[in-house]
Amino acid sequence: MFGGTKLELFDDSTFQLITCSTFSEGHWSLDFDTLILAEDKIRWRHDSIQQYGCKGKWPR
After folding, report:
1. 20 vs 12, 13, 36, 44, CA distance in Å?
2. Where are the alpha helices (DSSP H) in 1-60?
3. Terminal CA-to-CA distance of the chain, rounded, Å?
4. DSSP letters for 32-44
5. Per-residue pLDDT of the chain (60 residues; tens, 9 = 90+)
6. Considering the entire predicted model, what is its pTM?
C-alpha cells in the first residue's frame, strides 16, 4: 500500500501518476493481468531536487 499516491488512467492510453516525490506522465498498456506504465516525463515534486540533483535518479 502506498500513501499519497494517485494514478489516473485515461481512455487514450495515457496516464498521470502523482506520488509523494514525483509527477509522472506517459502511456499505459495491459499484458494479460499486468498493467505496464511507460513514463515519458518525470518531474520531481521538490524544485531543489528537480533543478540541482540526481539527474533523474533517486537520491541515495
Report:
1. 25, 23, 20, 9
2. 47-52
3. 22
4. TTEEEEEEEEEEE
5. 567 789 999 999 999 999 887 899 999 999 999 999 999 998 877 665 556 555 555 555
6. 0.70
